[in-house]
Amino acid sequence: MRFILFCFVMIGFYSCKSEKTVRSRNFSKVEIEPLLQDSFLNIRALKVSNNRVWFAGSDGYYGNWDLKDINPEIDLSDIFKKYESISHNYQGHMSRNMNSDSTGYELRAIAKTDDGFFTITAGSPSVFTRYKANDRNIVYKESHPKAFYDSMDFWNDKEGIAIGDPTDDCMSVIITRDGGETWTKLSCDELPKVRDGEAAFAASDTNISIIGEHTWVATGGKASRILYSPDKGKTWEIYDTPIIQGAATTGMYSIDFYDEKHGFAIGGDYTKPNDTLNNKIRTIDGGKTWEVVAQGKGPGYRSCVQYVPNSNAKGLVAVGFKGIDYSKDSGDTWKHLSDEGFYTIRFLNDSIAYAAGKGRISKLTFSK
Description:
- The protein is mainly β.
- The chain has a single domain (23-367), classed as Methylamine Dehydrogenase, Chain H, CATH 2.130.10.
- It has 2 helices and 28 strands.
- The strands form 7 sheets. A 6-stranded antiparallel β-sheet has the order 4-3-2-1-28-27. It has a 4-stranded antiparallel β-sheet with strand order 5-6-7-8, with no helix packed on it.
- A hairpin with a 2-residue loop joins strand 14 and strand 15.
């Protein structure tokens, strides 16, 4: 009997030890530390990878820096100006993309692999550039007058995806299987057909969410739906959502998944940023069905939403030009933390994030 009891105790101990660490959070404030401020910058694409911050923005500007280099004694704006006229500077802190195909264009989407950094110009021509070591190469270019790519991400170091507005009767989806060396645009025969006025928003480079081999793409505009692939872009399904839609400026602007089941999307109508009806939706079945949450309450239009790491799909932070908001209960209720506006945000851990917007990149520290 004692042996059996001992076995149950040991099983319980090791089961608890194997569970993912989940911390209870209830943020009530956020400290905002400016890292880079320059009025000519307009940054909507941001990544935190391998202890580095990567960004891209207006007029072909892009950059990165090691988080260990960020301290009060370093003026990052001076570092930026120092590298402003240097091209091909993949290893440096910040630089300007001097390629004639992209200078003067908005860079709205970026991605990072172990040995490469990728940017996409917004609008036509759409130019995909890969920076690897000290080399820079155009790996894909699309000159269709309707070409406009909104977001990109990678499943692993070899396989990646970018999505854009329709040039035919489906969303533009291009795939790489060789680390970004080559990209192939999927035929509309392989994708669900779009509805009239359905496209996507290049507001925060968060139209795509990837968990393992699962991929969710948020569309927006007159129709706002979920394009879903269970197998890294080989097959696709489409799911309806109850988010506000029907006008060119409505729909989902951002989507994030915590795991294969729990996801959240936010948006609204940026021309009516205070409207809070039907602009926040949640799924618990992998995107097949969605429910509206915080109806008539919480934040209005926001351009980016991200799950707080280690929060068991309960912690969410949303940002937009109207400020920063936090939910501790999967989006049912929200707390407005700051009026300072940002376009996009990425977490480093469960209390520190980096956010970018008009004229700046900042470090955000959340606390009780």
